Structures are given as C-alpha cells and as structure tokens.
Amino acid sequence: MRESIRRLIATARQFVQINRVYCDRGFYRVALIETLADLDVEFVVRAPKTVGVKRALDAHDEPTFVTDYEMVRKNPPTGRVSVTLVVVPHRSRDDDSLCLVTNRDVSVEFAEPLAEAYRRRWGIETSYRKIGEFLPRTSSPTFAVRLFEFLFAVAMYNLWILVCFCLVEQRVLTDRPAVSTALFRLFVLSLPDG
C-alpha cells in the first residue's frame, strides 16, 4: 500500500500542487498516515470511533475540541503515529460527532472550517453517483465498449453541468439543479439524429 500511495502522490504532483489530501475512514491506517507524513503531504482523514477515539471523546465535555492523539496498530507490522484529533458536532445527528485526524496544527477556532472543508469532498462522491445516471445499460464484457460507455456518460454529465450552470439564474429551487438529470436525459433522447 505504501508504494501505491507514493506513486499516486508523485504522479499527482507532476500535474497539480497538493495543498491537502482528504480521505474517508477506509484510509484510517497507520501505514497510510506514516507514508503521507513522509511525503510531506497535509492530510485530513475521517476517524472511525475506535476504542482510542471513544476514550478521547469521553475525556472531553465540550462538543468541539482539538487534541493530540496517537494512532496505534497492534497487529504486525505494528506502528504508532502522532496526529491531531479534531472533533466537531455531527450536522444531522444529535449526540454524535464528526471525528477527523490531521497532521496540521489546528486550533479549536479552525475545527469547524476544517470539518466543512472535509464535508465538501462529498461533491466528488455525488459526481460519480450522478455520472452513473447517464450510464447506458450493457451486458457486454468487452472493455472497449464499457470504457466508451463510461466516457460517454462523463461527457453527458459534463454537458448537464454546463446546462445547469447556464440556467442558474432561472432556477426556482436554489437547493436543486436547474434541470434534473431525468429531464435532461429525456430532452437529449428526444433530439433527432444528426
């Protein structure tokens, strides 16, 4: 895993400047954190409520806090890494918290903005879900066919985003896109060929 992360970061650095890496709880691993720290990459990783995190939550009465924390891997290969644990109240569930670990120095005042920055990463997850709405159905096992269909779906998604962007002033509901994906697909399918 370490070598894969090193290659991924090296490749990304050829094209973009990495300010901060956001990872979901599946990446809450001592080896990953050590590798990102070795590469001098600032990171924010969602922390699952492990025994250690629960202990930290129990030790603090305030809903928002920042504390030093040590991630520990007890199984071989063992390891320990020091991070900062950032805890803020969960947005939608009372009596719950969003827990993050980071290698940056964070003050309590910056805890909520950091959590908001982390929450914005869901736009990426939503994009992939929305691209799926444009994918044609196929049973073809041929890679070229599947790749073409995925790239076509990405192109349709990008066109839909452009249409929504152009119609942003006309939308009635500000919490939804100007045109739904279902209406956009219906419009595109109704166009005559060529």
Write up what this structure looks like.
Helix content is 47%, strand content 17%. With 194 residues, the chain is of the alpha+beta class. A 5-stranded mixed beta sheet has the order 1-2-5-4-3, sandwiched between helices. Helix 5 (122-134) packs across helix 6 (143-166). It is globular. The N and C termini lie far apart (48 Å).
Give the distance, in angstroms, between the N- and C-terminal Cα atoms.
Answer: 48 Å
**Structural class, from secondary structure content?**
alpha+beta
| Overall residue-averaged pLDDT value | 88
Major beta sheet summary = 5 strands, mixed
Give the strand order, joined by hyphens, for the main sheet. 1-2-5-4-3
| Count of DSSP strands | 5
Low-confidence stretches: none
Percent of sequence in beta strands:
15-25%
List keywords for this structure.
194 residues; alpha+beta; 7 helices; 17% strand; globular
Please provide a brief summary of the model.
This protein has 194 residues and is an alpha+beta fold.
Layout of SSEs?
Layout: H1 2-15, E1 21-23, H2 30-38, E2 43-46, H3 51-59, E3 65-73, E4 79-89, E5 97-102, H4 108-119, H5 122-134, H6 143-166, H7 181-190
Parallel strand pairs: 1-2
Antiparallel strand pairs: 2-5, 3-4, 4-5
Helix pairs in contact: 5-6
